Amino acid sequence: MSISGKKILIAVSGGIAAYKIHFLIRDLIKQGADVQVIMTPDTERFVTKLSLSTLSKKPVYSDFFGDNGTWNNHVELALWADVMIVAPCTANTLAKMVNGICDNLVIATYMSAKCPVIIAPAMDLDMYKHPSTQKNIDLAESFGHIVIPAESGELASGLVGQGRMAEPETITKTIVQFFNFNLKKNLEGKIVLITAGPTYEAIDPVRFIGNHSSGKMGYSLADEAARRGAKVILISGPSSEKVSEKNIEIHKVTSAKEMFDKVFEFYDTADIGIASAAVADYTPKMVATEKIKKNDESFTIELIKNPDILKTMGEKKKHQFLVGFALETQNEEENAIGKLHKKNLDMIVLNSLRDAGAGFKNDTNKIKIFTPSEKKEFDLKSKDSVAIDILDFVENQYLK
């Protein structure tokens, strides 16, 4: 499930959020999409055709006629696209779209389009809230267009509120979900058990030993598995992440021992196990019942090993397809392959903290996947896109 080979027409209108389109184009190109950019004439006040054409690897059009008098055929542009995304969509462009005011190349192309249309509005707070804008958004949705709501934050005017264009990662996710929505649900009827996030090991009622895992990767995997028809059991350590799909049963835990117990409450019924949680290897031998006071210059905590959840999953494996994760800083591939065999895994996903943009807290990740007989390497992508790659690989191995 991917957007490789999909033809995506990006129409950019004249707002400050136009600078974000560079990141959107780059992300879509990395995922194999074919991207064509058009823009309103005023957009050139914010971004250049050169930068957008360099990233998209295609000429960028803003007028009906080129410099040498050639016609930029808006009908051909419209019919070429598998989907048209208008981002940022200013109040002016939105009003023209829903009212048929066709005075530039973007609107003419939009009105010729037979493909689905996705709109990402961006404007100042009061403009976004204005009844006319809200009416136009409702009209756009009544046309069957997908509207990605503006996000809240600091705006160009200095006001704080809703009006910011959705982040490129959100737009990419919407596009991916659109193309994958009607695909065959290969995991229909399967139970996928996923662990996510960190574990916190208590020192006293106030302090704990933990790590920097946010849970983003595990939650993205849970959403993607659910989109593919699976019943997902998500066992999560402390995390502020949320799932967006139904059919996900979430169990919150704190410590490694709690995660261990919860995993093996459900493991026997699982068809696929994906252990993406960053589980603490050690826990304090003694937990103070009261807050430990700061008295001495040094303080020693005796640690004992936590139960190895993934190793135990491998030992108890019967019919399950088992996926582990390895986060390494040195001898990455050697350590990952060793873990694959030692813990009786079917597949392991390797992250290296040496790779910029990979690892904890980031919205992106860069992975390598190993099986006992295969290796595959992927580019840096959003974690939602990485989840697609991982589950594509799982399906190819598990369902073959």
UniProtKB/TrEMBL annotation:
GO annotation, biological process: coenzyme A biosynthetic process; pantothenate catabolic process
Pathway annotation from the record: Cofactor biosynthesis; coenzyme A biosynthesis; CoA from (R)-pantothenate: step 2/5; Cofactor biosynthesis; coenzyme A biosynthesis; CoA from (R)-pantothenate: step 3/5
GO CC field: phosphopantothenoylcysteine decarboxylase complex
Residues annotated for CTP binding in this entry: D281, K291, P307, D308, I309, L310, F325, K339, K343
Catalytic activity: (R)-4'-phosphopantothenate + L-cysteine + CTP = N-[(R)-4-phosphopantothenoyl]-L-cysteine + CMP + diphosphate + H(+); N-[(R)-4-phosphopantothenoyl]-L-cysteine + H(+) = (R)-4'-phosphopantetheine + CO2
Cofactor notes: Binds 1 FMN per subunit.
GO function terms (MF aspect): FMN binding; metal ion binding; phosphopantothenate--cysteine ligase activity; phosphopantothenoylcysteine decarboxylase activity
Domain Flavoprotein: 6-178
Keywords tagged on the record: Decarboxylase, Flavoprotein, FMN, Ligase, Lyase, Magnesium, Metal-binding, Multifunctional enzyme
Gene3D superfamilies noted in UniProt: CoaB-like, Flavin prenyltransferase-like
Cofactors that this protein relies on: Mg(2+); FMN
UniProt-listed Enzyme Commission number(s): 4.1.1.36, 6.3.2.5
Residue ranges, annotated region (Phosphopantothenate--cysteine ligase): 192-400
Residues of the DNA/pantothenate metabolism flavoprotein C-terminal domain: 187-395
Superkingdom of origin organism: Bacteria
Region span, Phosphopantothenoylcysteine decarboxylase: 1-191
Entry-linked InterPro entries: CoaB-like_sf (IPR035929), CoaBC (IPR005252), DNA/pantothenate-metab_flavo_C (IPR007085), Flavin_trans-like (IPR036551), Flavoprotein (IPR003382)
Record family assignment: In the C-terminal section; belongs to the PPC synthetase family.
Function of the protein: Catalyzes two sequential steps in the biosynthesis of coenzyme A. In the first step cysteine is conjugated to 4'-phosphopantothenate to form 4-phosphopantothenoylcysteine. In the second step the latter compound is decarboxylated to form 4'-phosphopantotheine.
Name by which UniProt lists this protein: Coenzyme A biosynthesis bifunctional protein CoaBC
Organism: Chryseobacterium piscicola
Lineage of origin: Bacteria, Pseudomonadati, Bacteroidota, Flavobacteriia, Flavobacteriales
